[in-house]
Amino acid sequence: MAVIDKLIGAAGQWVGHTDANATPLQPLEWIKKTGSYTAINRIVGMAIPFTTRNGFSVQEVRPGYVRARVKLKGNKNHFGSLYAGAYFLVAEIPGGILALFDLGPAYTPILKSMTLEFLQPADSDVEVEFTLPEETVAAVLAEADATGRGKFTLEGILRDKDGNHVATSYAQYRVRKKGFKPQA
User: What CDD domains does the entry give (predicted)?
Assistant: First the structure.
């Protein structure tokens, strides 16, 4: 098993046992939570350095849920709003994160197709949230375990800092089970 797979597995276990609502008033839980997100963002940055250079970060992750952000700073287009590529970055990476943490490192996520519908320019950082229901996770695992591949679709609502709906993403993912060999 590759080092990155071990890191992903360990980070998934660690973050799964954190209190997402912890505040500095609960110092140990807050440190555990913020340390978890720092670790996850470092792992993502090691796997895909482009994310770090472009201000992408995971803000929250738990089973079946991820919220991520991309910064406006460093990602402005020719008229000062968020560059289209940054929208794609923040809308695409979380699907892989959900797959890795909910399915586990034995499954490799692959983006098959993605479309973005732009609704209005974003003049701030942009966040997106995705959910992957337990039933979907179970179906993807069953399909991948039986055939070596599974698939799922995510729809995301991208919002600016004021909560305005600035874009909608539609992404189709496929996962491959590592080392899969069909039964004879």
Answer: PaaI_thioesterase
- CA distances, 102 to each of 99, 110, 128 (Å): 5, 15, 18
State the pLDDT confidence band at 126, using cuts at 50, 70 and 90. Answer: very high
Structural domains of the chain in order of their starting residue, each with its CATH number: 54-177 (3.10.129.10)
Q: Residues with Cβ < 8 Å from 86, sequence gap 6 or more? A: 54, 55, 70, 75, 126
pTM metric for this prediction = 0.86
